[in-house]
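User: Please fill in residues for this 268-position structure.
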């Protein structure tokens, strides 16, 4: 009983935090796709796992000559022991471990890596982002009732063939295999997939108390581009107006709920 109360309090607290803090990110994408992100959380996770896997390989190729000088080995130093190719708990555990191991390799061999420190540090931060997001997703997937197939030996989503089979299922059948997420958990996955491994140029966080924090990447701060500043400012204006409307809806909903439990004429 008390455990359920604590879970409810945690959800309410996290929801209130989300409602009282607005975050706007302006990112640079190497490529633009006209296709929409998958509606299915399962497929969003698979898209993200694939993005992280490819980024690890790309960074491994970039640093291979420094980490394995003179070696004829074709093994990518950031590949690690790749066992899972899906998007379940173990797949993200493996990606997290690979990112952490790659950070260690770069930090231990900094003296051998002859590239600008800013570039190296930026790549280390990217690996840290992959590591952190994978751990966030693992925590979600491990929560009770979220992934009913996490430990299913016959059909789990660490197996790429099962993911492919799920992708081709009719919606009526696929629903039984979908993740059971609350809104905040879904937003964590969607945000992770939106940002992926792209470079965040400007990030602004606005609190309801009036506290505003703007972070600008060093590379962009040194060579600012006016149109990107303008786009970011427009995004802030649009987001704030939408945020205000959302807060008003929540307040009215709260008043309605209070009215149900404390109707007019009833003494509190």
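Assistant: Residues filled in for all 268 positions:
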């Amino acid at each position: 009983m008390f455990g359920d109360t604590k879970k409810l309090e945690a959800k309410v607290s996290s929801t209130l935090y989300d409602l009282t803090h607005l975050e706007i990110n302006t990112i640079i994408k190497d490529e633009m796709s006209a296709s929409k992100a998958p509606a299915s959380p399962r497929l969003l996770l698979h898209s993200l796992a694939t993005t992280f896997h490819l980024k690890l390989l790309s960074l491994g190729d970039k640093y291979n000559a420094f980490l394995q000088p003179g070696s004829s080995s074709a093994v990518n130093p950031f590949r690690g022991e790749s066992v899972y190719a899906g998007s379940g708990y173990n797949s993200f555990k493996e990606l997290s471990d690979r990112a952490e191991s790659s950070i260690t390799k770069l930090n231990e061999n900094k003296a051998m890596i002859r590239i600008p420190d800013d570039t190296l540090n930026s790549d280390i931060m990217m690996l840290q982002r992959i590591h952190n997001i994978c751990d966030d997703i693992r925590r979600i997937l491990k929560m009770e009732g979220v992934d009913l197939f996490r430990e299913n030996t016959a059909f789990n989503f660490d197996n790429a063939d099962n993911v492919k089979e799920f992708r081709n299922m009719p919606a009526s059948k696929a629903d039984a295999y979908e993740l059971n997420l609350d809104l905040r958990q879904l937003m964590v996955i969607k945000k992770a997939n939106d940002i992926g491994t792209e470079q965040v140029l400007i990030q602004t966080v606005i609190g309801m108390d009036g506290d505003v924090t703007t972070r600008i990447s060093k590379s962009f701060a040194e060579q600012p581009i006016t149109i990107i500043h303008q786009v970011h400012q427009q995004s802030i204006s649009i987001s704030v107006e939408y945020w205000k409307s959302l807060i008003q809806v929540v307040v009215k909903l709260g008043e309605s709920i209070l009215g149900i439990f404390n109707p007019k004429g009833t003494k509190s």
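For context: The beta strands are 21-28, 199-207, 212-216.
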